[in-house]
Amino acid sequence: MSARILLAEDDRSSREATAALLRSEGYEVVAVSDGRAALEQLDPGLAAVISDFAMPQLDGLQLLEAVRRRAPDLPLILLTGQGNERLAVQALKHGAFHYLPKPAGADELLEVVEQACKRSQLARALAADAEVGRELLGTSAAMRALRERIRRAAAAPSTVLIQGESGTGKELVARALHAGSPHKDGPFVAINCAALPEQLVESELFGHVRGAFTGAHERREGKFRAAAGGTLLIDEIGDMPLELQAKLLRVLESRRVTPLGSDRELEVDARVLASTHRDLAQQVAAGAFREDLFYRLDVVRLEVPPLRERREDVPLLASLFLRQAAARAGRPAPELTAEALARLEAFDWPGNVRQLKHTIEGMVVMAAGDVLDASDLPRALRDVTPDPLTPAGPQTLAELERAAILRALEDHAGNRTAAAEQLGISVRTLQRRLKDYGIND
Predict the structure, then answer these.
(1) At CB < 8 A and 24+ separation, what contacts does 382-390 make?
(2) Which has the higher per-residue pLDDT, 42 or 6?
């Protein structure tokens, strides 16, 4: 595995032996003799830090604090001697990735380093995905596929139809398409057809001249013209009146718009995106949506999956929303217990990501302490039965790991290669864990 590791160890023989072991597995190693030297070697290319606990000048805990300030996503593994286990547990609570007693076994050390590098790789992928939409997070196959389709569709000028249930993040997808397009420096303009009275949608889209209708005291440019050189999102297009659909089709075909009350056509230069929570094909069959407009919009289609179909993304989203809500409330982000998180994952979320976000915000506002338990959940979630593969209550790392392995094996009908890929570990590591936990075929 090609990744760069920073090793801080004051004992020369231990430092050389650990560095040799890592290099034999393909890692690039930067080895230093103390914490202060380690700080000087910190850079964005590192995948993990391995640090001895007791070192001169700057010990492992002090190095951890410095790393958390400078590179909060960089995993740090502590190597501890006899008598330091209690402090090492404290270090885990302050953000250390893992700790190992000295002398650490070769297999155990390599396994922890492998997991730390996977964590770094994921953090970098999520940072890159921030350009595609900060809340379009998720490691599920559905979200990875969606982000890839967004990247491919963004560069083309084609019309895109974004479909998904309410609260799934359709506008975030639209903004990601805009951000990845050649016109990203142009305006992003959105109009919600369901939020406006029918008589105003046409004026908002196409504009009007002064005196075009009662109350038209000033000229209005319209969204098509306002989005010139950028992107226009027509949200909830499934709610657009049929009469207006014919006019929209003409604008899309001619690239010209006629403001209300005017006989002058104006050129429009905006990429059009459309989104809806409705099934437009069914709308067409029911006569509620024009077939020709549907085909004109359905050049590229992006389906945004509901949250219940990507439950494995709930912890990542919950963590993001916890930090956001805590920052708005001016307080440290509380922690979710395993039992509370299990119920969040098991809930069906009819309001999708939007509902999860508001639920977390309410919990943070009402939190009395630094830990959110199942009792802090809204009543509807307290009655949810968690996944039986996810143990409730306080859990050790081993219990959480065993549950994740069982879930991955169940997801892939016992296929170890596929389960290992989902878990982000090697098949060899998975086989060793199966043996450790007594999980048989």
Answers:
(1) 382/343, 384/343, 384/346, 384/347, 385/346, 386/339, 386/342, 386/343, 386/345, 386/346, 387/342, 387/345, 387/346, 390/338, 390/342, 390/345
(2) 6
Rounded to 5 degrees, φ, ψ at 272 are: -105, 130
Contact predicate 180/132, CB 8 Å: yes
- Rg of the chain over CA atoms, in angstroms? 27
Phi-psi region of 380 (alpha: psi -120 to 50; beta: other; left: phi over 0): alpha
Q: What pTM was computed for the model?
A: 0.60
CA distance 89 to 76: 13
Give the span between the Cα atoms of 120 and 43, in whole angstroms.
13
Phi-psi region of 229 (alpha: psi -120 to 50; beta: other; left: phi over 0): left
Helices and strands counted in the chain (H then E): 19, 14
First vs last Cα of the chain: how many Å apart? 29
Pairwise CA distance, residues 42 & 74, whole Å: 10
Min mean pLDDT across 197-206, 234-243, 352-361, 389-398 is at 389-398
- Are 433 and 440 contacting, i.e. CB atoms less than 8 angstroms apart? no
Residues of the chain with pLDDT > 90: what percent? 40
| CA–CA dist 240, 198 (Å, integer) | 8
Model pLDDT for residues 15-36, shown as the tens digit of each residue: 999 999 999 999 999 999 999 9
Label residue 138 left, alpha or beta by phi (over 0 means left) and psi (-120 to 50 means alpha).
left
Q: Show the tokens assigned to 184.
A: 């990203």
Integer angstrom CA distances of residue 349 from 9, 169, 180, 243, 359: 48, 13, 29, 35, 10
Give yes or no for a contact between 334 and 364, defined as CB atoms under 8 angstroms apart. Answer: yes
Pair 343, 382: CB distance under 8 Å: yes
